[in-house]
Backbone:
């Protein structure tokens, strides 16, 4: 783990959702309660001014973690500590509010994340206005900071393209002077050429303003470009954590390895590889032991019964009983 | 090539009449797909790639309509057919795979019923024969326990399995052309790899021609034989996939390849194309790409880029990348 | 001026100009509404001024000179010699006022409850929506009659006629809030999961502020459509209640009251006393309804 002091610290984070049918149906159809564990015992640290990325496929719990880290969801178990304030246990409303002012989020869908009936000026200054702050000239300054023009302040969101809207979302996130920004798939709805613009903007802001990022994505290539450290999630569990280059050159978990091999390559002309087998299991009844064992080529009896813990393997952390063996292969 | 191509599109123009203006989402597009060949149509949103696919299969929604150009399937002109003849062609001659597998399956019929119905409509076979073939078709697309699952409804399948069913459905009447419109966009990476491999294997085995519409350059690189890069309704570049992707001639293709995060490995900033794709109602005069192009010259601001024919020319650009050193010097 | 031109060129106005049904309905409705609003100026007689009434003028058929005074009344007169055309104009005033006010009341109530139910969920939602379900099992007119009856019971006799109109408004409004609440709740459920609402929650906006400033503006288009269609229903409901004798008092006759009065003469040959108010009511309800239908299509993004 990194030795730098952590700005954000996540410990044993767990979130369960009750997805049971209504009480009456359960009684009539004699169904048990069904509990979906979206996030299970996840711990990691983000040092100040670094970008930590969470990657995973659908159902991996990456968005749920993001929402818990900004306080949109409360953890069932475990804690999120940001700048020394434990978001779910802090009792002082003042300290809590001060902490939340420093946390912001950029969402996935640039079409749904801006109120269509509001003018851009009001949208991007809302975080400040809501706290009674001074917003004179703020909208203009923010717009220019994200590469739009000050005249755009009086337009409505529908007058902007997807990429420009994502710039607006970034402007809103910046307005309250945050220290920590969670980006939930910020470019997955954008075209490649526009994605590059938005990613560059975020890199620039990171260096200029000294921001700390949590970057959530399903796209390994984007993550590799943006992150200082990457966590790989599978079915709500953190299965591997490593620096980008280490992750790509020496994956320490068979799932990471599979993801890397399955991603289409720009130079993979006529590539003939055996595609991965199986699909992501039902999160309501996850496999016993290691969640990945039904798809894993290395699976042994131990994997079917004992859930591996995340442990240090070289410079990385991996939750695989046979992480050392994987590297040897 | 001496064979007639399976699909031949010549100077296809699609227009939409709106209140304010006439828009051209597809403008003078030509290409051929031979037997067993996969043509990747790539472009960003609004480039007209899906509209091209829909025009080929006669599924344009009003007010969009083909105003000129020709579409030939196995040498037979199909863009002038009546809607009912076209429907027949869509069943037997052309199979379709769309982005969202749920919308292409009827939720009220079992998977087997849909396969059997489609097959019997187009092939002279009995009910029991069709059922046997349906089981075989499901096994072919890799559905485990096909014989038991044939009587399940679509909702009982996961996203990836549904897309497999859709592929089985598209191929069961043995069409000579499959149009796949973003078939893997809604799927996870691991499942996407499975579906792509499957689609490629089936089409190669049967000699089916495939028009693969997608925004993902990686998918194109791994799957397609030929690629057409579209920008603002026109073909910007057309050629063998390895050529186009490794040595792009059109500045747009170059920018597109360059802005993929992998291309800038180890650098702090990604290469980016400035600006946005223009809206169809507000295309700039001349080459639609010129405001974003670092090679643009007077000719580009005045004249539309050269129109690409199906079999000659690579890039619809007056000053293609790597053509001459002088062009580069000017830029 | 420029504002007017830009409004005229908007998509909305364009759709309006392309729909003959909408244009005709709008013209009919505007004529009726203007006639009602300016009734004191438009009406040739004041039907409520006992001094101007002449019993001798009673039962004059339309467009025929009265056999005693020789006066001609366009739409004839009723048993008391009141000009039917004038009573219709004044009656429409009451009908429209009750209709608008009742819909406004129902809208305020329904939108508020729907927002609360949709956004807060849990027990709030259960209580509000079950109440709505229960109310839906009774015909609206029964609910209105019930409320009207209770209100009548608790108001002192001397205020009854004065209060009748307001009681009518509350009765119709209370019987009509359910559909507003249901639609707003549904739309709120959709909106509250959108990311712009999450963004507002994230910065610590209060629930009230999110509901009022963020969600409300985005659920108003279906509300407008229902409001229009409800207006037609409210006008009819008012007419029904008045026809049944539990609505507007004869001192302040609405269209429904006029129809009730008129039906007594239908079989004795004086058809016009019933016919003209009834046709007016029909035109009023129909034009509002057609306009509402058109509005629903015009505001529906999926039908664009």
Residues:
């Amino acid at each position: 783990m990194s030795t730098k002091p952590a700005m954000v610290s996540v410990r044993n984070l767990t979130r369960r959702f009750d997805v049971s049918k209504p009480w009456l149906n359960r009684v009539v159809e004699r169904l048990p309660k069904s509990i979906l564990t979206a996030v299970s015992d996840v711990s990691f640290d983000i040092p100040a001014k670094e970008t930590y990325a969470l990657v995973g496929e659908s159902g991996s719990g990456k968005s749920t973690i993001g929402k818990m880290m900004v306080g949109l969801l409360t953890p069932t178990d475990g804690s999120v500590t940001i700048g020394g304030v434990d978001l779910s246990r802090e009792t002082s409303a003042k300290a809590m509010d001060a902490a939340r002012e420093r946390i912001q989020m950029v969402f996935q869908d640039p079409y749904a994340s801006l109120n269509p009936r509001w003018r851009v000026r009001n949208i991007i200054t809302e975080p400040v206005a809501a706290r009674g702050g001074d917003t004179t000239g703020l909208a203009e300054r923010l717009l220019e900071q994200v590469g739009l023009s000050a005249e755009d302040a009086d337009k409505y969101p529908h007058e902007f393209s997807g990429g420009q809207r994502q710039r607006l979302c970034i402007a809103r996130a910046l307005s309250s002077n945050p220290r920590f920004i969670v980006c939930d798939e910020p470019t997955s709805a954008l075209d490649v050429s526009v994605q590059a613009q938005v990613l560059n903007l975020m890199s620039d802001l990171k260096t200029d303003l000294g921001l700390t990022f949590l970057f959530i994505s399903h796209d390994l290539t984007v993550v590799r470009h943006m992150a200082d450290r990457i966590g790989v999630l599978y079915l709500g569990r953190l299965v591997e954590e490593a620096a980008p280059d280490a992750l790509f050159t020496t994956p320490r978990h068979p799932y990471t390895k599979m993801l890397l091999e399955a991603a289409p390559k720009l130079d993979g002309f006529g590539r003939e590889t055996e595609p991965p087998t199986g699909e992501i299991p039902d999160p309501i009844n996850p496999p016993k032991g290691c969640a990945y064992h039904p798809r894993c080529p290395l699976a042994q009896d131990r994997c079917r019964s004992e859930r591996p813990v995340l442990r240090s393997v070289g410079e990385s952390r991996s939750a695989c009983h046979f992480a050392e063996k994987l590297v040897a292969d | 090539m001496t064979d007639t191509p399976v699909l031949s599109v010549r100077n296809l123009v699609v227009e939409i009449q709106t209140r304010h203006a006439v828009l051209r989402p597809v403008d003078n597009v030509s290409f051929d797909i031979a037997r067993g060949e996969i043509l990747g149509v790539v472009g960003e949103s609004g480039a007209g790639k899906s509209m091209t696919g829909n025009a080929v299969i006669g599924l344009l929604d009003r007010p969009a309509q083909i105003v000129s150009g020709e579409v030939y399937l196995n040498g037979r002109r199909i863009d002038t057919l009546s809607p009912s003849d076209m429907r027949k062609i869509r069943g037997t001659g052309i199979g379709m795979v769309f982005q969202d597998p749920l919308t292409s399956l009827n939720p009220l019929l079992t998977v087997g019923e849909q396969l059997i119905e489609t097959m019997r409509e187009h092939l002279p076979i009995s009910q029991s024969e069709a059922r046997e073939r349906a089981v075989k078709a499901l096994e072919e697309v890799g559905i485990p326990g096909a014989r038991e699952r044939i009587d399940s409804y679509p909702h009982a399948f996961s996203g990836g399995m549904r897309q497999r069913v859709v592929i089985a459905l598209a191929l069961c009447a043995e069409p000579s052309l499959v149009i796949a419109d973003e078939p893997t966009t809604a799927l996870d990476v691991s499942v996407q790899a499975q579906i792509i491999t499957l689609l490629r294997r089936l089409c190669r085995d049967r000699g089916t021609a495939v028009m693969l519409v997608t925004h993902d350059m990686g998918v194109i690189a791994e799957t397609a034989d030929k690629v057409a890069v579209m920008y603002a309704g026109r073909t910007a570049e057309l050629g063998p996939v390895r050529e186009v992707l490794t040595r792009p001639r059109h500045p747009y293709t170059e920018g597109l390849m360059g802005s993929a995060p992998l291309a800038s490995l180890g650098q702090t900033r990604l290469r980016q194309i400035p600006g946005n794709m223009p809206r169809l109602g507000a295309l700039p005069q001349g080459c639609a790409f010129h405001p974003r192009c670092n090679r643009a010259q007077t000719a580009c601001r005045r004249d539309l880029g050269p129109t690409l024919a199906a079999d000659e020319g690579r890039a619809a650009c007056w000053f293609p990348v790597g053509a001459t050193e002088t062009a580069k010097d000017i830029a | 001026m420029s504002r007017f031109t830009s409004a005229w060129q908007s998509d909305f106005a364009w759709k309006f100009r392309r729909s003959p049904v909408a244009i005709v309905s709008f013209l009919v409705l505007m004529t009726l509404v203007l006639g009602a609003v300016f009734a004191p100026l438009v009406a040739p007689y004041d039907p409520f001024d006992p001094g101007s009434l002449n019993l001798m003028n009673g039962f004059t058929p339309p467009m025929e000179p009265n056999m005693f005074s020789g006066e001609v009344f366009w739409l004839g007169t009723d048993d008391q010699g009141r000009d039917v055309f004038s009573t219709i104009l004044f009656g429409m005033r009451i009908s429209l006022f009750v209709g608008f006010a009742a819909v406004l009341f129902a809208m305020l109530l329904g939108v508020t409850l729907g927002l609360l139910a949709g956004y807060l969920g849990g027990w709030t939602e259960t209580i509000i929506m079950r109440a709505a379900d229960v109310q839906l099992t009774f015909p609206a007119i029964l609910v209105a009659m019930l409320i009207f009856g209770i209100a009548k019971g608790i108001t002192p006799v001397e205020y009854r006629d004065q209060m009748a109109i307001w009681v009518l408004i509350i009765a119709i409004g209370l019987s009509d809030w359910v559909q507003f609440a249901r639609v707003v709740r549904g739309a709120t459920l959709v909106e509250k999961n959108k990311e712009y609402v999450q963004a507002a929650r994230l910065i610590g906006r209060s629930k009230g502020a999110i509901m009022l400033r963020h969600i409300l503006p985005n659920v108003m288009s279906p509300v407008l459509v229902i409001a229009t269609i409800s207006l037609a229903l409210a006008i009819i409901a008012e007419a029904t209640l008045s026809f049944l004798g539990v609505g507007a008092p004869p001192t302040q006759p609405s269209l429904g009251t006029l129809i009730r009065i008129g039906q007594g003469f239908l079989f004795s040959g004086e058809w016009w006393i019933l016919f003209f108010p009834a046709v007016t009511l029909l035109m009023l309800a129909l034009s509002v309804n057609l306009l509402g239908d058109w509005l629903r299509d015009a505001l529906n993004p999926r039908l664009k």
About this structure: The first strand of chain B starts at residue 7 and ends at 17. Strands of chain B lie at 7-17, 22-33, 38-42, 64-73, 76-77, 94-97, 177-181, 209-214, 226-231, 234-240. Residues 286 and 301 of chain B are 5 Å apart (CA to CA).
